[in-house]
Amino acid sequence: MAFESGIGAALLLAGRLLFGGLLVYQGLNHFMATDMMAGYAQSKGVPAARFGVVASGVVLVLGGLGIVFGVYPVVAAGMLAVFFLVVTPFMHDFWAVPEDQQQGEMTHFFKNVELLGASLIVLVIAGETWGYALNIGL
């Protein structure tokens, strides 16, 4: 099913803007709050925490832009899916933190699982032609 025109293309564009755009915003946060995020990553035992924060910011920005613009969408969605699959249980291990931190970590864990699910959905439809997209790398 191609999403080249009509209501399907418009809804897909809206979803791409929301999903990809917010991923770009989250990625940019990794650059604006690198020290704070690196401290958090370090507390979770991430080796080279600062590099990890910057690298994950790059993944989020590139993946989000790929989805927004339809540029290598399979690569973008796949990269995001792998990112959320690896990072989520490691960074938001709500089962292994003190009780006063469990709710916050659980919220972040489930948010990331939702983003993983959305990335997988986009991965499935990424091989189709998208309306209102550059459609580079299909």
TrEMBL record:
The keyword S-adenosyl-L-methionine does not apply. It holds the Pfam family DoxX. Keywords: Membrane, Transmembrane, Transmembrane helix. It is found in: Membrane. The keyword Transmembrane helix applies. The chain crosses the membrane at residues 6-28, 48-69, 75-95, 115-133. One of its GO terms (cellular component) is membrane. This is DoxX family membrane protein.
